[in-house]
Design brief:
single chain, alpha/beta, Rossmann fold, 4-stranded parallel beta sheet, 8 helices, 14% strand, globular, binds NADPH dihydro-nicotinamide-adenine-dinucleotide phosphate, Sc_DH/Rdtase_CS
Amino acid sequence: MITGASSGIGAAAARLFAAEGAAVVLMARREDRLKQLADDIEAGGGRALAAPGDVACAEDVRQVVARAEETFGRLDVAFNNAGWGTAGTPLHETEDAEFDKVMAVNVGGLWNCLRHQLPAMLRAGTGAVVNTASTAGVVATGAGAPYVAAKHAVIGLTKAAAAEYGERGIRVNSLVVGTTRTELIEGAVKQHPELETAFVERQIQKRMAHPDEVAHAALWLAGPHSSFVTGTAMAVDGGL
Ligand code: NDP
């Protein structure tokens, strides 16, 4: 189950995981994009299910987890990647509604996913969860304050779940993602053009990541080669 699969990092992960043989369940709100991606994956011989929904809605998430189990027999890997945030607006000028939305998607969405995925993984007898955090989850990078708070919470929830489920065969890790060229960043740069340089300059490699570079890290954390890794926040940030 991959959330935020309709674009950027999630779509790249969906293609990669499917190419590695996983049956992928694609969740996001834009149904047309999910259907197109699922069709592409199936045309290439993979297995994919477009399962539209809003991660901030617990009932949507419950239904997607149920569809994953019904369609493919079990849920054993989740890439909880859906997220949204803004940058460039000072805290005191940020609308309350933006704070609520950022928390609802990034934190509430992850909460909903964990609440429904973990029981499914207990039923499956195995599980690997990868949650998309951000460098903003470790340091205040210049992203908006709600996003910084939300991504810190993603890392906290990851650690809590890892500690509780480690003995039951479920691993939970997060990815500390640096600036990656996706619609999220393009939107922020459109609003605040000065961010383009700022985003690149702070990284040792002086460039943004390609979504595939993040997807490969997610694949490693989701797969068997990271079997002794849990509770970690793994940096894929071009060096800070
Ligand atoms: P995109 O905007 O390309 O992708 C975001 C994805 O999240 C889309 O598929 C979007 O789909 C989905 N999404 C957003 N809100 C919801 C919702 N309420 N319910 C379901 N799906 C939702 O950006 P990225 O690929 O960059 O973002 C992926 C993750 O990476 C996010 O968590 C982001 O915070 C994180 N990240 C990105 C960085 C970057 O530089 N790009 C850096 C650090 C972290 P739809 O609109 O169809 O619902």
